[in-house]
Amino acid sequence: MFAMKLSNVEFRAMNTPWRRWGHKYFEMPMFRRLGLEARDKEVLEIGCGNGYGAYLLNQLGPKSYIGLDVMEEQIEIARRRYPQYNFLIQDAADLSRFTEGSKDVIVIFGVLHHIPEWRKVIDEIARVLKPGGSLFLEEPRGLDIKFFDFLFRWGHPNTDFGLKALEKHLTASGFRFQKLWTPLLTMYHCTK
After folding, report:
1. In the chain, N or C terminus with fewer CB closer than 10 Å?
2. Domain 8-191 grouped into CATH 3.30.420.10
3. pLDDT over 80 at 169, yes or no
């Protein structure tokens, strides 16, 4: 697998009430402000973690939802907490199980920087999105990732990931995007 699993420290941090609070009261409202709509749509979440994003996304009434993560531990938590949703252990750098143009909405809650082959993930997303479909993603700045690694020893992969590199690859992959900058994260709504 190409994707990095979370370190023990970050795994614990991602499974706290504070993380769920941020998901519900910060990230989802920002995505909604950027135009996230899921009613009657085919939704794919990359890096679904413990499933709380699935819970929030499913409140929007999608036609279907699938959550992917490479960490078996996270998928076990997600399946236990939200057995009504579909979760798969899956590397996002290979979405070959999904046909071309099969998803209306793809959501990434800040995990792309964990994947050394992040460009391949963007390419796969471009392939599986329906024409007119939307990618919603959030990511920290590369400098913030290095700061968190220094401070908390989270152990992110040493790649060239950064917002400029991300935006360049999104554009090269045929995406147009709008973004909202916040002090912690940059939120994107990308369309083809």
Report:
1. N
2. no
3. yes
Q: Which residues pair with 13 in a beta bridge?
A: none
CA 100 – CA 98 distance, rounded (Å)? 7
> Mean per-residue pLDDT for 13-32?
83
Q: Which residues, at least 6 apart from 126, have a Cβ–Cβ distance to it below 8 Å?
A: 173, 174, 175, 192
Q: Note the maximum CA span of the chain.
A: 43
Q: How far is CA 164 from CA 23, 30, 141, 168, 169, in A?
A: 24, 21, 9, 6, 9
Q: Cβ-count burial of 126 within 10 angstroms (0-12 exposed, 13-18 middle, 19+ buried)?
A: buried
Which runs of E-coded beta strand occur in 116-155? 129-139
Residue 138 has what pLDDT?
A: 92
